[in-house]
Amino acid sequence: MLIRLADARAPAELDDGWPVAAPEQQGMDGAMLRGIGARLAACGEARAHAVVVARHGALVYEHYFTDDDWRWTEPLGLVAFDATVKHDLRSITKSVTSLIAGIALERGWIEALDTPVFTYFPEHDDLRSSAKDQITLAHLLTMSAGFAWDERSAWDSAGNNERLMDEAADPYRYVLERELATPPGRFYDYCGGAPALLQGVIQKTAGRALDIVAREALLDPLAITDAEWTRFPGGDVRGHGGLRLRARDLAKIGQLVLDRGLWHGRQIISAEWIAASTAPRINGEGIFFYGYLWWLGRFLVEGREIRWVAGVGNGGQRLYIVPRLDLVVAVNAGAYSAPQVAGEMVLKRHVLPAIFR
To answer: Pick from 142, 169, 204, 333: most CB atoms within 10 A?
Structure first.
């Protein structure tokens, strides 16, 4: 239950790589942004924990709340969130794994996205079939591998494949054992096993665990020094949902994508990969398109169609990137397995109108 709303104020100067500016300096209505906290506090189902807004490369707004939270399935109790407190990203982790796949491709660890997945798992050759041999890395990135997979059931239900993968002695084998429901590459179907397999490929080709690769190739260059991962029982991190970051550091990921792989003058990921991974690749959930583990959508504001790229995670974790407006919005929330309204409320009702007002 939400019990305290932190004081609204300008983003703090923390020497973490983020310049800070007043909203008006970046072409935004500060009064509209300052209304975010009160609206979220009044909306009990939002369960907001943190909101960070950056425009033109500078932080213009941040706000934190006190609420109950979890680390994966571990209850944390009441947490007083601020700029120093980490939060589960849940499935935004998938989008981070996509960035690391781009680094793997650029460095030659992965040769091509049309490589069959079983190429990287010879120890599981007994699971191969002529149909499964058609699954490629590109299919993992677009959630179109075709596995029979259910994540929509309750976590503790007998048929929730994400939980069963999470509990498996070998999560990669568990995924590869699944029968195919559709031909590979034909349809999008949400499957946490896909980025888990991608993680396995990266670890095999890089010769290091995913969290080590992420730290060396992505997080350290972004000056993200306080990252944490939850792990499978066998010890590997959960590349489909286990990353925990501070909200300001999550916004750095968004700024990196907005700037086509560039951070403070350093090209961390190729601009070509950012463009390729955030382009529409397949029809996703509902009206959304899907890229390489990134969501693509749009809002209509003041008669203007505003397109965005997003990382999306259970509970209301949202990372919105709006290239046309040079804008990044990061939201953390605790509405796990419930209606998730905080991110859309922040972006559509406050942040975008603050630009067009």
So the answer is: 333
